[in-house]
């Protein structure tokens, strides 16, 4: 999984799986999900990240990888 933040447009993209992109499914005005032709989720984009994720602060956010 890879997470990228674009400060110019205040968007987060979370790449969840490898694969060939086929289409984007709109979940809400702020959340888009990229899928392959079999509807497997490849990634997710969150627009207006600071507004939609109040706890998100790109300057201070730390990520912890948990293995279950």
TrEMBL record:
Pfam families: DUF2283. InterPro entries: DUF2283. This is DUF2283 domain-containing protein. It comes from Candidatus Woesebacteria bacterium RIFCSPLOWO2_01_FULL_44_14.
